[in-house]
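Notes from hallway chat w/ T.B., transcribed later so I don't forget. T.B. wanted the structure written out for a chain they're using in a teaching module, and asked if we could keep both sequence and structure tokens in one place. Agreed to drop them here.
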Amino acid sequence: MLADPGAFHPGALRALIAALGLYPPGSRVQLSDGSRAVVLSAGARADRPQLRLIRDMAGRPLAREDQSLLDLDAPAAAGLAVERLLAGGFQAEEAAPPERPEPVLADADPAQND
């Protein structure tokens, strides 16, 4: 959208970015310190979303209890910025474990589906 400014109505594009930010909720991003996060919501500025950290600066996954919330608009985050948008959305291995086990379905025999 941003690469071809004439393709979209400027007012509609501004409204979309104001609502979602540059990084829609659920997007994964890498920060300037090497850590990775999931976007929770747009921030006051389009390029400063609210995040949940999921990997540390070395790329190691963080346990759920160690996943802190980070508002890039906050003064404490002044030195941090989104460096890049990562491919794919929220990954299963980064999700909190389910509170109860998922039901297991019986193995289907493909031959019975004929």
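Follow-up for T.B.: The mean pLDDT is 81. Might be a good example for the class.
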